[in-house]
């Protein structure tokens, strides 16, 4: 919500001036390797730019967002106390999804945590995006055309890093709902001058036929859908690895950090994965992306863009910063939007940050081990905590397993909570052996039910593999 005061306008103008100072409007890449010189900025310069942006964004948020103003006042912190990265981390506690959700419930339909009010929406509104709402009230975010330009450049850096060049073309296979990922890629392909064949609103067989007829080089969808579509093509007697597809641009689900899944999908398509990592709250763009130097078998990681966002990791209990190289939950400060600048927002995926130089020359921090476990997905079974992706890795590692699996959590008559993992395998007699494999991989005891291959429903878009039917 905007306050119709001169301070609101003044601070917005000052914030946008800083954004514009570092904005490039590229339609062609800097050179063979990088879309922008920002990818290789020195660490000192990256920090100086972050500091300058924080000093401008804090007063802007105070004057233009009721959510932020209330929080500053409640904490007894002045916007001028947030002068740079260090003073922000010292003075500004991490913002959680819960806080945003409460604000969204108290101030429907938009909440007050964004800085795109009615005036900006009417003047230069671009698109509305929404969190999935799977864990509570959906939080919505309105972005402007001003933001769109920043979004396109950030995503172009990601797509170019992943390998997309002139001559490539995209086939987005998504529902085009209010989710940032596919829209971000769509607009960015246009900015980069790469053609698009729209692939929405049709089934797998129709999309398989489109791939064969129009020869796109780049598929844009969730990882689950890549697996699904590849199997559909095989059922049609076709080999996905023999198609025109070279790049697999994915978002929306953990992927490249799940060992077994990345290889399975890359091998199926004979193509290279390019993963977008990010969140709806701190858009308008991905925050992280795949590295051109990454080879199968290396520890997975993604590059983050620090000139436009500050990335930190915190411990899950106190939400205090952890030392570099230690595992923690991701926290993002978004310094690249007039609509949804955010200070220390808890994105909540586990990773380790590394400033070690990368072979590709990009100087920005990396998320190591990839970001494969959003803390919201954590399963707590009798006090043992684990992520569904840990089960996924164990299932993928067992020879002969099908693509699908399910995790079913139930309560027995005696009140004990138990887990059954349903696995596809041609040999029904393997259940004990697979249970043992899961136990040795995850240190979790479970029962395994083996079903024949291709009997579990195929996941099309976002995978739903956990069914929690425990008594609460
Ligand atoms: Zn790299």
TrEMBL record:
Highest taxon above the source species: Bacteria
Coiled-coil annotated spans: none
InterPro entries with a match to the protein in the record: AMP-bd_C_sf (IPR045851), AMP-dep_Lig_C (IPR028154), AMP-dep_synth/lig_dom (IPR000873), ANL_N_sf (IPR042099)
Occurrences of domain AMP-dependent synthetase/ligase (ranges): 126-328
Segments forming domain AMP-dependent ligase C-terminal: 383-470
Gene3D superfamilies: 3.30.300.30, N-terminal domain of ligase-like (3.40.50.12780)
SUPFAM superfamilies: Acetyl-CoA synthetase-like
Protein name, UniProt field: AMP-binding protein
